[in-house]
Design brief:
Layout lengths: L2 H11 L3 E4 L5 H13 L3 E5 L2 H7 L9 E3 L7 H12 L6 H10 L1 H10 L5 E4 L5 H12 L9 E7 L10 E5 L9 H19 L4 E5 L10 H16 L4 E6 L1 H5 L1 H7 L11 E3 L3 H14 L3 E8 L5 E3 L6 H15 L3
């Protein structure tokens, strides 16, 4: 069974409610129609009657719950709750009302905070900052979280590497230039995400342009230090580095460049040294390798909130909604 089919089956086994705040985008409704037809998750779509009608024409979204913030009976409760959360930061009740009615992502976060939804998918027509800022202000980080980061699930067709072509790439969407401690935290979180979603043991490689000391540079030193920290902090996972990408994935090259490593040649979780490398890497694999790219998925927030690439398709959104529903089963 393909990865996304397994995710859909998991989602169906314990259905959760996912909130979609981007009623101004046609792709939201195309994805919603498919999710509802396959009974993968319950959906709440936030928007006015006009927005919903204009963007869902010809699609069956009759099983979705449509909530108009301007008329919904619990809106005042959400406004009051948001005010209580933010009044210490200087927010007034009037500002709370203006923010929630003017930005559906804030409204969605308050719904999750108040227990009226299990997760959120946004970002098709908004920036990562527009998605994450409300999440961190309202839902906040999960207990014990050292860093909120992002990952992609990459499904590469006809690929013998990784877990039958399935990988987690981190961080490709959020943390610009992690220091060694942050890079180690990304490695640990990404390993846990792989295990939760793929159901297999993660094999984690911290990537570099160097393999086991083949090059000397401050950038290499950062990855070496991160690897040491990650091994100490997450002994339950197989983690190693620094490794070049081919040494991480290809058994023969791994055996040649890092013969003493149990990770080299077998990695299914690839940790990039910075956001430039991660973003470039996932897009090359997606476009040239014709891979399915699901994300950026967020890790470290108390409830699942996932950001979409603005270049996503409706099919991509379906996949992210299904993954969000599975994450919600464990949050």
């Amino acid at each position: 069974m393909a990865f996304i089919d397994e995710i859909k089956a998991k989602a169906k086994s314990n259905k959760k409610t996912v909130i979609l705040p981007e009623s101004m985008d046609r792709r939201t409704f195309e994805a919603a129609a498919e999710i509802l037809a396959e009974d993968i998750a319950d959906l709440i779509i936030i928007g006015t009657d006009e927005e919903v009608k204009a963007n869902s024409e010809g699609l069956d979204i009759s099983k979705a719950t449509i909530i108009n913030p301007n008329t919904y009976e619990k809106t005042q409760e959400y406004i009051n709750g948001f005010y209580e959360l933010r009044k210490a930061k200087g927010m007034t009740l009037e500002e709370a009302e203006k923010t929630l009615l003017g930005d559906y992502m804030y409204y969605a976060c308050m719904m999750v905070k108040m227990g009226d939804g299990d997760g959120i998918v946004s970002g098709a027509c908004h920036s990562t900052a527009n998605t994450l800022r409300p999440s961190l202000q309202i839902i906040k980080t999960a207990p014990g979280t050292k860093l909120v980061s992002a990952f992609f699930v990459m499904v590469v067709p006809n690929c013998e590497f990784g877990e039958d072509g399935v990988f987690v790439f981190g961080d490709c969407g959020l943390v610009q230039n992690p220091n060694p401690e942050e890079l180690a935290a990304i490695a640990g979180s990404s390993a846990a995400s792989f295990k939760q979603l793929v159901g297999k043991e993660p094999v984690v490689a911290l990537l570099s342009h160097s393999s086991m000391g083949s090059a000397k540079h401050d950038d290499v030193t950062k990855v070496v230090e991160a690897t040491k920290i990650a091994k100490e902090e997450y002994p339950q996972f197989a983690i190693d580095g620094e490794l070049q990408a081919d040494a991480a994935m290809v058994p023969a090259i791994g055996a040649s460049k890092a013969p003493d490593s149990k990770v080299a040649g077998h990695a299914n979780v690839l940790i990039f040294p910075d956001l430039d490398a991660g973003n470039i890497g996932y897009k090359l694999v997606q476009r040239l390798g014709k891979a399915e790219a699901y994300g950026p998925m967020c890790q470290g927030i108390a409830k699942p909130v996932n950001d979409l690439s603005r270049g996503c398709s409706a099919k991509d959104i379906v996949g992210v909604i299904a993954i969000t529903a599975v994450q919600a089963q464990n949050s």
